[in-house]
Amino acid sequence: MGFLDNLINGISLGSIYAVIALGYTLVYGIAKMLNFAHGDVIMVGGYLIFTCATTWGLNPYLSLVIAMAGCTVLGILIEKIAYKPLRQATSLSVLITAIGVSYFLQNIALLIFGANPVTFTSIVNLPKISLFDGQIIIKSETTAAIVVSVLIVVGLSLFVGKTKSGRAMLAVSEDKDAAQLMGVNVNRTISLTFAIGSGLAAVAGGLLCSAYPVLSNTTGAMPGIKAFVAAVFGGIGSIPGAMIGGILIGVIEILGRAYISPQLADAIVFAVLIIVLMVKPTGILGKKISEKV
Amino acid sequence: MKMLKKLLTLSLAAAMAGTCLASCGNTSEGGSSDNAGSSAGGENTIVIGGSGPLTGSAAQYGVGVKNAVELAVKDVNDSGMLGDTKLSVIFEDDEADAADKAVNAYNTLKDKGMDIMVGTVTTGSCLAVVDYTKQDSYFQLTPSASAQDVIRNDNCFQVCFTDPNQGRASADYIADNGVAKKIAVIYDSSDAYSSGIFNTFKEEASAKGLEIVTEQSFTKDSKTDFSAQISAAKNAGAELVFLPIYYQEASLILSQSASADYKPIFFGCDGLDGILSVENFDTSLAEGVMLLTPFAADAADEATQKFVTAYKEAYGGEIPNQFAADAYDCVQIIASLIKQEGITADMSHEDMCAKLTAAITGGFSYDGLTGTGMTWSADGAVSKNPKAVVIKDGSYSALQ
Q1: What ipTM score was computed for the predicted complex, to two decimals?
Q2: A57 CB near a chain B CB, below 8 Å?
Q3: What's the CA gap between B310 and A237, in Å, rounded?
Q4: Total beta-carbon pairs less than 8 A apart between chain A and chain B
Q5: What is the mean pLDDT of chain B?
Q6: Taking CA atoms, which of A74, A232, A290, B4 is between 20 and 30 Å from A107?
Q7: pLDDT digits over B274-311, tens only?
Q8: Mutate to test the interface with B, among A3, A110, A116 (most CBs of B within 10 A)
Q9: How far is B228 from chain A (nearest CA, A)?
Q10: Contacts of A54 in chain B (CB under 8 A)
């Protein structure tokens, strides 16, 4: 019973990682850059929901929509201001810029919202599921995280495979210059990618803060890094890979904490990453790529 | 061409260094003018320097201490108990940091002319500065840094219990009052305060016949997800979960246990004090939480009531927590010692330190908000009786 309990907790944490990892993988797959500021866009999303739902008392779902819109705009702005001028630069410069953006967002949040963490009111309003006479409780946040991450994976796969903008994304990811010659607007496609990735970050922020209701300016940092690990684990650039990677990382982390050592849980997660990269450098579902970061 | 480039680089570097220095100068000027009102109070003023977290996750402690220190200094000055000598306060934010921020705060206090130190508020910061206060000979009285190691030097004393005492007293309370038999512990293994309490709790619990069914820990890098620890406690059948941790993590544990439908008795130490004032926290989750703390704001005695009323009046109706009470006692203890020893503002802080240290261990006894008949041994620890409180209807109420 204890094992099942831990497994469910792991899947719960993992599906939140999965939603965050989708944002990483989408941007990497198309723009070929690691947006290290993604974790901090999640934090901004969390604060937007908190401000709308708790400070102004709006409906939680309306707040989520507003936060998604806000993060989408933020994502496009970040791309235009920080990343677009570096389109021809080496990937290392872009990576360092992303780290800069990450610190910038954290400190802006510190300035606006202060250093005191706030308690987030859950925006998930579903009943708990009780199994085996209440021995196993599936939290409403867990159900929500699993359902939302599956919906996003299916939705994104359909979008990329079936729509015109989605196929433009695929084209840009294959070869930027060739896509441009074929009449694809590369800049607009990359902006769209950032817009979708950041909108997802707001959803991830809502799920993360509902499950772990403390919100501060560094809330997104650690989950962001773990989700990045998940994206690499699953094969960065692959949408189903992010989902699989996220869930596996969550389960490994919780089982490691429960059965090996709470102190070593994070070390185990990163050790697994190292082992996977040694055995299969492109991750579980990754394609072979020649770029280096 | 090359020469020109070199010249340009040099002049740029010089310009940058210049701006750096200039801005440094500005900040320190700004800093001192901020506090000019309090520190430059005149020749007969003894300056009390305080340090604690005014921002960050432990801010409730620091703000409570700062408010209470200011209130106590005002009370001492108004009462005229020190004759012509007045007290004044300077207070610096150390963000409960265990390294450079705490030392920076201490150095700023020194620069601003501190004579006696009240602080720091948290154990980690205090450990970072105790050797400096010893080296510089400042008398140091901490309201709430509770580790045994804090008082390793002979110039530093505590008003709160040391961690070992808190752990022992918690186990005694649980055993003597028959609160529970099967106990789970969730503690922060990366924190000196938390593991300090845990170690003595474990010892005393086994001596008292309590069964610790599971020991769970977490570290400062992974303190948001407690699901594994909670399900371990639940599956081990613990009736009581002992939380020798701070309120921020405790609030997460409470909310995650509630959503896992696990409702044991939660029992904590002074670190849980403040949980009710976390912004937007659902206080119904904390209903029934018991904590060992020397101060309950609703206690009926006259001194407590007077302090609570004055504090609420001065700080917009906020109810003082245990840290505020400890800090108020700190200043009152220092004032009594100053009076007893006839210390005046023209003495050096080294002389004050020597006199105060001799006086506090020399049969001095004090009745304050956080205990009666408080006395100090030469090792710096206080002796007084612990009290337990339970959270009822969204506020702390005293347990017998």
Answers
A1: 0.72
A2: no
A3: 62
A4: 93
A5: 83
A6: A232
A7: 788 777 788 888 888 888 877 877 777 788 889 999 99
A8: A116
A9: 5
A10: 280
Q: Are residues B235 and A2, on separate chains, in Cβ contact within 8 Å?
A: yes
pLDDT at B3: 55
- From CA A103, how far away is CA A241, in angstroms rounded? 28
The residue ranges of DSSP E strands in chain A, in sequence order, are: 118-119, 129-131, 136-138, 214-215
Give residues 217 to 256 of A whose Cβ lies within 8 Å of B. Answer: 222, 253-254
| The residue type at B173 | Y
pLDDT digit string (tens) for A273-289? 888 888 888 888 876 65
Domain contains A248? yes
Residues of B in contact with A251 (CB under 8 A): none
In words, the CATH class of domain B164-293 is: alpha beta
Give the least confident one: A165-169, B28-32, B46-50, B336-340. Answer: B28-32
Specify the pTM. Answer: 0.71
Distance of CA B397 to the CA centre of its chain: 21
- Per-residue pLDDT, A97: 92
* Per-residue pLDDT, B20: 46
Chain B closest CA to A264's CA: distance in Å? 9
In sequence order, the β-bridge partners of residue B188 are: B218
CB atoms under 10 Å from CB of B197, counted, come to 35
Nearest CB to B231 within list A5, A118, A128: A5
Query: What is the H or E stretch that residue A147 is in?
Result: helix A140-162
Domain encompassing residue A24: 2-121+140-279
Q: Structurally, what CATH architecture does the domain formed by B43-161+301-385 represent? A: 3-Layer(aba) Sandwich (3.40)
Residue B46 pLDDT exceeds 80: yes
The interface residues of chain B toward chain A in range 280-339, judged by CB-CB distance below 8 A, are 280-282
What ranges do the domains of chain B cover? 43-161+301-385, 164-293
Say which CATH number the domain at A188 has: 1.10.3470
Q: Say if the Cβ atoms of A119 and B224 lie within 8 Å.
A: no
Residue ranges with strand state E in chain B: 45-52, 86-93, 116-119, 139-142, 156-158, 182-188, 211-218, 240-243, 265-268, 290-292, 366-368, 371-376, 382-383, 388-392, 395-398
